[in-house]
Amino acid sequence: MINTKRDQYQNLLKRKIKLKPGYNKVILSSNKCYIKKQLWGKHDIKLEDPYKQNWIGPLFKHLDQDYTVGELLQNIVPAPKINEALKLILYLKESYIDFIAPDYSKDSKEVELLDWFTTNYRSLIRNHEKLRDLLVNAHVVVLGGGKVGSKLVQSLLQLNLGKVSILENSSDKVTGSLISDHAYQKINSVMLPKEGWVDWIAENKDSISLAVVAIDEFDPQFYDSFNLCAINNSIKWSLLATENSFAYIGPTFIPQQTGCFQCYMMRKSETDKGYSEFIKHLIEEPQAIKPYINPSVVDIAVGYFILNLPYIINDKPQDYISDLTIGRQFQLDFRTNTIRSENLIKYLSCPSCTNAYINRKG
To answer: Which residue positions does the secretion signal occupy (predicted)?
Structure first.
C-alpha cells in the first residue's frame, strides 16, 4: 500500500522526537538555540529566528519532554510559524533528531506496561494539572461501594470536584472502612439496593457530569440496564473493573458521540461467539459473578482512570492524550506485564443508541 502525503504527514504528527544521542541543545534566548556535539566545543548548528517571534527557544526547550510533533506545533509554536517549524524539524531529521513512533491507536495493540507508562505518564500529569481546576462544578457519581468503588472515591476526594456521590448497598460495607470519617462527610453517600440505582441516576440526571460503574462483581444484566438508562437520559458514563491480575479501564460512553455498552458487547461478540453465549446466559438467568479483587491491581487501575478523568468530564475526546478511554478500553494484564488497547465503540452501531440519536436529531 502506498502512503499518501497526507498519511505521511499525519504519521509524522503522532511521533515523538528527541535529539540524537551525543547531541545537546543550548538555548540562548527565545529566538536562538545551538545544537552541539560537545558542550565545551563549537556548535554544530545555530538556529535563529531573525523576526524574533519567540518560538525557537520554547520549541527546543520542550523537545525532549515527551511531546509529539503535533503537540509541539499546536501548543508551543505560533500559528503563522507552524509550517516553518515543521520544515525545520524535517531538515534536522537526518542528522540531529530521532523520531519515535509508539502507536497505541490501532484497534488492538499490546505493549509493555512499563514502556507505556514511561512514555505517557509525564504527558498525562502535565495535561491533568491544566484541567484539574476546571472540575469545581463537576458531579461524579460512583456506582458501587466495594473495593473498586471505595478506592475510586478515595482518589476523587483528592481532586477539586464540586460533588462526589456514591451509590452503595448494605452488602458492600467497604466504603466507610477505607475512608476516614472526616473525608466520608464530604461524600454524598446514598444507601440503596442495587435495583434502585438506575432509578436514582435517572432522577438526578441533570446534575451528573459523569457516572462510573465500579462494582466488584461481574454483572452484565446490571451493565445492560444501566446502559439503557444512560442512553435515554444522555448520561456520560465509564466502566472500571478488576479481576485477579487484570484491570479493565473504560470504555467511556458519551451519548451521541460514541457507541454504548450494547455496541461494545456486539463488537466483542463478533470475534468470540462463546463469549456472547456466556453473557446471554448470565442475563437470562441473572447472577453476578464475584471475582477475586487484588488491592494492588485496583490501586493502579484507579490511578490510571483518575489521570484521564479531567478529559472525560471536560468533553475533549478529540485531544491526543484525552482519547485514553473514550470509545476504547484498556486491559492491563499483570501476569505478562502488558497493556492491551481496544477501540471498540468509536461509532454508534446498535439499535438502542442509534434510535436515540435519530430521535434527538428529529
So the answer is: none
Q: Is 111 in a helix, a strand, or coil? A: strand
Asked whether residue 81 falls in the same domain as residue 220, the answer is no
Q: DSSP for 50-70? A: TT--S-HHHHHHTTTSS-BHH
- In this prediction, residue 1 carries a pLDDT of 39
What is residue 362's three-state secondary structure? coil
Pure H helices in the chain = 5-13, 56-61, 69-75, 82-93, 113-132, 147-156, 175-178, 181-184, 197-203, 220-233, 261-271, 273-284, 295-313, 351-361
Phi-psi category of residue 288: left, alpha or beta, with phi > 0 → left and psi -120 to 50 → alpha: beta
Q: Dihedrals φ, ψ of 230, to 5°?
A: -65, -40
Sequence-ordered list of residues with C-beta below 8 angstroms from that of 198, at least 6 positions apart, any chain: 225, 226, 229
pTM of the model: 0.64
Question: pLDDT tens, 161-207?
Answer: 889 999 988 766 555 455 555 555 678 888 888 889 999 999 999 99
Residue 134 and residue 119: Cα distance in Å, rounded? 25
Number of domains in the chain: 2
> pLDDT tens digits, residue range 207-218?
999 999 999 988
Residue with cell 492491551: 340
Q: Which domain holds residue 150?
A: 108-361
Q: Are residues 95 and 184 in the same domain?
A: no
